[in-house]
User: Fold these one by one.
Assistant:
Number 1:
Amino acid sequence: MAGSPQSRYGADSATSNLSSRTSGTSFFSRNARSNTSDAPSSLYGSITTSSRGASSVSNRAANGNAIASVMRKTAQPNRAQFTPSSYPGITNLAIASQKAGYDSVAARNPDIQPTTQDRLQVQSRTVSDAQYKRFAQYIEEQSGIVLGDNKHYLVNSRLSSLLLRFKVATIDELINRAMQPNIYKDISSAVIDAMTTNETLWFRDTYPYLALKNIILPELARSGKTPVRIWSAACSSGQEPYSIAMIVQEQATTMVHVDPNQCQIIGTDISPEMLDRCRFAHYDNHALARGLSAERKARFFKPTKDPNVMRVDDKIKQMVTFKQMNLLGSYSLLGRFDVIFCRNVLIYFSNDVKSQILNKFSLCLNPGGYLILGSSESIQGLSDKYEMVRCNPGLAYRLKA
Ligand SMILES: C[S@@+](CC[C@H](N)C(=O)[O-])C[C@H]1O[C@@H](n2cnc3c(N)ncnc32)[C@H](O)[C@@H]1O
């Protein structure tokens, strides 16, 4: 993840990449067709292995151990690095460990123990009042996330895990460094990443996917629009854009004129860690149990060597492209969309920022395009660019003519 404020805000060269799957055939081809088949140097600082040494890590990885499978041997014989970005084997435990911290990883795995030296490095896991105020302002400027006055505990818990990783003694010092992105690019990026909340699940709230299936896709089919472009803004670990892709695939089965090859789904998020997970597209049993029916699991996922982990089938995976993008930045390089899902992220922003984002979305929606927000989010008092459409259940917003 680029650490400078400018690059965090900018969309990159998305359009050329994102349009690469567009061919001349119609999204709603009448031809009968078959479905297209199917860290920085160390995240938690140096980690010693047991007396069994690094080779035991490799063996455990082969056996599918959740933590060992994301550890790599380093040049040092008895040390390993925990690097989720360099999968394979990112699992829910690893996901949890990143936010919860190195100590929780160690607690679960007797092979991973902080060295005495590592322990001594951490002197304070508590942010001071003065530093909290500076940090809250900084985070809002960088990501839009409003911390408010009393989230010291959140800052402490989210940033503690970074102290060992970056070998910084106190949270106040970590924040000092994070606020100098030109010097401490990795720290700055990791700190902002750590402050994001990535809760998500498959087919979250159900109604947006019913609206897509029953109202929006049929409407696009009638219009003959091609390609259909759908943006999952703030896509977290990928459940939202992959759920959208599954709906399109299901509709292709029941409506022969829907062609998944003519549907581009773009997932974006500020968090490079989440985007790694999206692209890897492996999900453990805990994640798979959240919102996914047995039928969809059987149809759209493939087993892996690890019995606790399944991967998204290629026919779904290839429908989605991922890009890092900060919603505070420009969207101009993403092109125009027929549908934007922006769910459960505006709640973290101020009304001013919400309003700016809603108005920027309106500029990259095609005429009659839809915006779908989270169930607790609304445009009321924030933007006059949309009309409300009742979908029964739920609602969506359509760009005004
Ligand atoms: C709670 S998750 C929502 C995921 C998904 N949309 C859903 O509803 O299940 C919020 C996501 O917003 C992302 N996020 C927070 N601030 C952002 C920003 N300024 N730009 C882009 N993404 C951001 C976070 O990284 C996180 O993955």
Number 2:
Amino acid sequence: MVAAVQVRNDLWMTASGASMRAMVFERVGAPLVPMTRPIPVAGPGQLLLRVHACAVCRTDLHLIDGEVEIAEPPRIFGHQVVASTVPDGRRVGVPWLGWTCGECYQCLAGRENLCVRARFTGCDIDGGYAEYMVADERFCFALPGEQSDEQTAPLLCAGLIGYRALGMCGEAQRIGFYGFGAAAHILTQVVRWQGREVYAFTRPGDETTQGSARELGAVWAGSSEDLPPQALDAAIIFAPVGPLVPAALRAVRPGGVVVCGGIHMSDIPSFPYEILWGERSVRSVANLTRADGSEFLALAPRADVQTQISTYPLEAANEALEDLRHGRFEGSAVLVP
Ligand SMILES: [Zn+2]
Ligand SMILES: [Zn+2]
């Protein structure tokens, strides 16, 4: 009965144009601003969602710092959202890919992640740093899982885009992760479950993170300046640090691949051709397709992926972002409105 009353409240609030709390980006370099905003109204094909948890992503830091541009501020961030539909209460996840045109050459070739008119949640469309949001139903994922909303949220970007990056490593057996944050926490569990080996590279001297990488099942953990005990088949760089590209190239065997997993990276220093020679390759991973999402969200429970989270109230979004910037937690920060 409580649920039914809840639903009626939602409807009433929506119909009467009630307001919600949100953390709003106004300009580059400034903290997000707590604001009261009208609850958005779902248009055709959209869902009105009550946000239950929204994980913080490094991309949000790049947006604040102006390294990735927000075309039309003000904007509500947040693209790892676990929410329920209003009024019928279905649990859904909202990822970074918020809308695609379906007709450009990339969409027609099955590369909707590269759609030339793509719109991204929490960047081009208001996201989940709020009590409510609207989302295109076609880009939401059903979330039947048993894990809590807070624990599920980091799967929607850290997990999902990490999984796309992992796909680019092909059949690699020995896989290096440079930067052991939220994505590497999740992927280490997937890679182990698949019977492959993880080599974890952290900032020099970060023994805490190296320890937690070993606890999660990395066969080796060390400094990004070190070479692994054996040459790697592939490496994924999650840290937005250009000098890691030549470091990873030195760690992979001939024919190996280095995948850059972030949306932004500092400049890559020049390096001798011999570390690329031998058919090594360097490539980036961009965004996600809905197929990536469905595949990963089905696999995560089978691999028994457990996310490590630190929760923050919505109003503490700026603290969560600064804690991420300074590496003050393991795993993911999750906002709970
Ligand atoms: Zn993200
Ligand atoms: Zn398109």
Number 3:
Amino acid sequence: MEFFQIVSYALLFLLLFFLIRLVYPFIYLNYFVRSQNLQEKYDATWALITGSSSGLGLILAERLAKQKINLLLLSNDLESLRSQCLTLRKNYPAIKVESMCIDMSQPAETFIQSIEGELQKKPISLLFNNVGYVPVFNFASSEWNQVESHINCTVTNTIQLTHTVVNSLYKRKGIGAIVFTSSIMSFIPAPYSALYSSSKSYISAFAQSLAIETKKYNIDVCVVQPGPISKTNFLKATGIDNFEKDPFVRLLYSFSQTPKQIINLMLNSIGKFTVVDSSPLWGLVRAFQLVCGENIILYILTKTSTLWGLGRSLKKKSN
Ligand SMILES: NC(=O)c1ccc[n+]([C@@H]2O[C@H](COP(=O)([O-])OP(=O)(O)OC[C@H]3O[C@@H](n4cnc5c(N)ncnc54)[C@H](OP(=O)(O)O)[C@@H]3O)[C@@H](O)[C@H]2O)c1
């Protein structure tokens, strides 16, 4: 075989491998992962879910209740928490459902002791770090408290909560799982929400390292990185009027998955995979990044970021 022929075959093989790699996680995770019962797998009696009052958290609570796992629900809206607890207690009388109304954007000192108190009463073996929101502002002109609130909620307090639960599992030699809801945005720059993508990057990187450390204690770590998800309060929580009608957002959300699909993937991946990429956009983004490289993408975003999405909405708002 001639040298050039060998090189062409090698390149063709690499291309084929790359294409399979791009579609395989999406097809495998969405269609072939078997369902599992976490109550049996981890002998779980209690689960703690942050951001439980709407969207993904709401469906997650329902699915864990179905598996007969007692629930400690944490979010910031007393009314939604109350009605969620009532519904779950009515539909699943065999389990205990308790809630804590906590603003996670506040410093951890305001609530961590009450969580530690709960951990002494309840053997929590499943923690779902699901809380998250998109902070929308121009970083240069923002107030520090806007920045601090988001970092408190999605990074500092999430990590401290994880530390508290992992530490208690370690001390009582319990088995369990720590699950993070990250995002496809963990590897995509988000102009005018720099904190969102960076907090998700932090969570994804943290989860991967933690997974290696805690495996020997039989504590599984899983980080789910979804793309756009329909039917949640996520877009409304940006505070931008009619944001869901923005042409770019509509295009993005035409690739969306439902909360049920994401929760199925999440629950069925725990203990089998550490990183779960589910979005049909995943392959597209990764291929684009590999072909163009970061700097070309950043150049394009810098030139166009006020023409679409958050940049366009902020510009309209300030005019
Ligand atoms: N929807 C998407 O397109 C999408 C895509 C990728 C990743 N994600 C991630 O998925 C996770 C769930 O989002 P979702 O789509 O289900 O949105 P969602 O419906 O807005 O749910 C967010 C949850 O977080 C809670 N929360 C927000 N700020 C809080 C605070 N300061 N203290 C305590 N709880 C707070 C909310 O509770 P209250 O409102 O009651 O305070 C709510 O329960 C987030 O981590 C998000 O980043 C979403």
Number 4:
Amino acid sequence: MLGKHLRAAAAFAASLLASTAALAAYDVDILPPVTPVSHEIYKLHWGILWVCVVIFIIVFGAMFWSVFKHRRSVGAKAAQFHENTTIEVIWTIVPFVILIGMAYPATKTILDMKDAGNADISIKVTAYQWKWEYDYLNDGVRFFANLATPREQIDERHGPAAKRSENYLLEVDNPVVVPVGKKVRLLITSNDVIHGWYVPQFGINQYGIPGFIKDAWFTIEKAGTYRGQCSQICGKEHGFMPIVVVAKEPGEYAAWLKEQKAKMPAPATPVSDSADAVATTSAAPVAAAAAGGASAKVAAGAPAKAADGKSTYDSVCMVCHGTGAAGAPKLGDKAAWAPRIAQGKNTLYASALKGKGAMPPKGGNAALPDDAVKAAVDYMTAAAK
Ligand code: HEC
Ligand SMILES: [Cu+2]
């Protein structure tokens, strides 16, 4: 009888031990901090936890000791006293001192988190359902970051999902790249609903709210890749808009920036009076095409081209087709274009005008005349031949 109980107890103890061994593989901790502010947050997290542990031990220790020591079976009699000034002063002053001791460093950290002034770099972060856009305000570099995990790893509609990659749902096509040791200010907003830019290792979890710009900042101490996710339930693909930040040494960052700048559309130039000048401002192709349609409006005697494919492409289509964002066939990528071109010109025109898959009608620019869109298609197909 006893033997049976012992065996059961031993089995239970063994199972407990086994599970602690399994748990040891996971650190019971928050992710390692990599910025001065997240170091402060980390210290606060553990420091305040230990204060709580000590208070817990003192309070419950005193309680259990009193209950045990003064139990009725040993004939304890309750002390009858009221209004003991000493005790009342002590139990007011001591918690007050403890609270101040915790509030002071916590407030200091919060003030520090909010001080995004004097930044070296400012990046505007715009949230969309369901991707992020990064705009390097000082450098004119702008791109979207989309989930890079292939759909076949996520979908199980056609049988079991494919083997998951190491950074499943935490990988993007275009990560935000920043230099190590520089103060980076983020200006966070949203295009549709509330999202949250959350990277735990930076100690940043900031709402992106339509119509508002919130800021946050970080200075990364060590080169590396840091990952996060949208922290607000923002719609059906809330779990599919991760954040990846790559911190590079300043030299490497400069090289990356140069490469990105080369990919961006040419900066706006004032319209010159030369007859065949085609302005590259974003309004120009629209205006030029509109002018072509209603010949009365032809500007300054210049025979404006009805639809200049390249400038429409540069101003509207390039954001996606220049980098291949969201599965858009990249400009000049013959392999991506060949099967599409094989569908015939009219199908391509129709896709460009009416939209297809992730591509919005007319590239999201409804004001664009059909001719301009068709010319842009011609430009893109020509580039892929
Ligand atoms: C918001 C991003 C985005 C913009 C802006 C955009 N495209 Fe696309 N485009 C895509 C995506 C994504 C695809 C792939 C769609 C698919 O095959 O499901 C695509 C595909 C195409 C195709 C191939 C269609 C087919 O039938 O295979 C053409 C042509 C095209 N785009 C033209 C344009 C033109 C012209 C513009 C500018 C007026 C433009 N796109 C702007 C994202 C975009
Ligand atoms: Cu979101």
